[in-house]
Every structure is written in C-alpha cells, then in structure tokens.
DNA sequence: ATATTTAGTAAGGTTGCTTGACTATATGGT
DNA sequence: ACCATATAGTCAAGCAACCTTACTAAATAT
C-alpha cells in the first residue's frame, strides 16, 4: 500500500533525479504554450546550432541515434513550424536543419523555463548546493563517459 | 564535425548523468549473462518485494505505469523464468508477483554489477565525492519530488 | 441486495526509435 | 577521366514499451 523508497544507490539516485528534472521540464513547457512538446523533440532542437543550422548526420551523431530517426523527428518539427531544411552550399548531398522564427521563440521559452525550475530548486536547497551538485555531476559524467574512440 | 559539449545546465547534467549510469548498467548486465536485459524489465524487477512478492496494482503505482503495461512486462519476465504469478490469499481478485530462483539469481548479479560500477566510479573521482554526490542528489530529488497528494 | 469500487485481462493503437534497402552526391586511387 | 567506395539522406517496415478502451470477477459500501 505504502510506496516504498527505492533502493538508495548512487545509480538509482542519478536515474531518479534525471527523471524528476525531465518530467518537471516537460510539464512546464507544455504549460508554457507548447502542448506538443516532448523530450525527444527538445533533445533534437537542443542539437541544432542556433545560427548556422546543423546537418542531419551531425545531429544523429550528437544524439547517438540513426539518421532515419532524426529525419522523422525533423519531419514532425518542420510540419509544426519549428525547423526548416535547406540545401548545404558546401555539399550537394547534405541538408542543413535550421530554425524558423517560431523555433527560436521556442528556444527562448525553454531557456526561461529551465531558469525558473533551477531557481525553484535553489530556493529549496540553496544556491551553493545547486552549484556544488553541478560540479560533482560534471566530474561524475566525465568519469562515466564512454571512450570517445 | 566536432561534437559540441551539451549545454552546461543543472538539468542537462542530471539527465546526462542518469543516462550514462543507465547505459553502463544495461551493458554490464547484458555482458554478465543476461542478454535479454532491458531497463523496463529491471525497473519492474526492482519493484517486486524479494520475499513476499508484490501485487500487480502496487507495482503499477510504484512505477507510475498502467497495470496493463505491468501485465505485459510480467508476462515476458514470467515466460523468461524470472517471475511467477500466484493467487493472493487475502484478496481473491489479486495476484502476487513473486520471484523464481532464477529471478533471485538475477537480483544478486544486479547488486554485484551495481557495486562494480560504483567502485569504478569511486576509483576515478574518489569515494568522498561519490558519497557527497549521493547526499546532494537525495536532497535535490526530494526537493523536486511531486507533492505526494 | 444492490451499487460502486478495485484487481486483473484482452485487444488494439501510438510514440520513438530500429534495421534493411535504396538514391544521389562526393572522393580517392589508378 | 573512370571507377570503386564512402557518405548524406530517404523510404518502408518492424519492434519495444508504453497507452486507451472495454471488459470480467471479486470486494466493499449503502
């Protein structure tokens, strides 16, 4: 009946904290006027250069996904008006994924929402704690990073 | 060409660190003789009481999933020999999901693997850092926890 | 007793990926 | 210059891990 605390292991804590942040962010973005927001779309948008755009194959490499998967998400985001495809001047095979004005507005909202959630967290645990946690997470993440062959 | 560092924000760091740990764990379990290991199966197994078993509806509540989804995963895990269903003596509607011997062996391997990954991490960043990180993660997680209505 | 709630099952749909097969362009060796 | 191979992207189909809707059976409340 009572929901037990999950095992208190560093791995579970990392997964849990990541999940919590992710869920809060998705909910906040949906509340902020982007009801069709999903995390995979956000990840993709976060992998597109704001100014020059990014080739699809590079997006796929950053996200560790196939280019077909990237193509599908870009299709969706282009249909929703956030992104557009344009030919790459330097490579006839390639296409650059670039932001539309609406896509840039999305990014600004996302930045604001992230700041708000961080501020709320800092209000509860203190700014120093958030800073220290960020630092330790960076260390842990780089220690666990797979060898960049 | 060069894969840029993702944005250095506390939220991304949390998500990233959780992903890294998760991926390492899945890979290690598959290497340790459980090639059919997936994270959703592991989550479910982690939600079953080792001794008394757990009712399906309680598993669903812990995982925040529908009971149908739980039923499907339990079907798979039962077919693979990790779990079994038995009638609940106290409620004629309910079934308890319990471990088989093979399921318990899986749990022991999972505990060992988690320990190994943690030890490797501690070897790189130091035990004190891991301990401090765990502490801060606990604080942050409880601060972000949704109101338990 | 009857109405409502609760535990679980059945069937089918959706999302977010995957693999396999293909076209078009680029590039490196001869 | 020509050909082999590699690379960028697309198309089609499939799969895992969920979901929704609709149901049965048992428990509980009125």
Written description of the protein model:
The structure is a homodimer. By secondary structure, chain A is mainly alpha-helical. Helix content of chain A is about 65%, strand content about 10%. Chain A has six helices and three strands. Chain A has helices at about 10-30, 40-45, 55-65, 65-80, 100-125, 125-145, and strands at about 55, 85, 95-100. Chain A has a three-stranded antiparallel beta sheet. In chain A, strand 2 and strand 3 form a beta hairpin. In chain A, helix 1 (about 10-30) crosses helix 5 (about 100-125). Chain A is globular. Chain A starts with 9 loop residues before the first helix and ends in a 5-residue tail after the last helix. In chain A, about 30% of the residues are buried. The model of chain A is unreliable at about 1-5 (pLDDT under 50). The first copy, chain A, binds a DNA duplex (30 and 30 nucleotides) through helix 4.
């Amino acid at each position: 009946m009572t929901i037990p605390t999950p095992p208190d292991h560093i791995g579970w804590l990392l997964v849990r904290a990541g999940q919590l942040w992710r869920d809060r962010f998705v909910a906040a973005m949906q509340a902020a006027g982007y009801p069709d927001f999903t995390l995979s779309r956000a990840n993709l948008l976060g992998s597109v250069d704001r100014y020059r755009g990014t080739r699809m194959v590079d997006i796929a490499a950053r996200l560790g996904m196939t280019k077909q998967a990237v193509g599908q998400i870009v299709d969706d985001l282009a249909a929703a008006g956030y992104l557009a495809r344009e030919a790459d001047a330097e490579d006839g095979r390639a296409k650059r994924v670039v932001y539309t004005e609406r896509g840039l507005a999305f990014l600004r909202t996302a930045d604001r929402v992230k700041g708000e959630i961080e501020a709320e967290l800092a209000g509860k645990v203190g700014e120093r704690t958030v800073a220290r946690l960020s630092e330790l997470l960076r260390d842990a993440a780089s220690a666990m990073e797979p060898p960049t062959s």
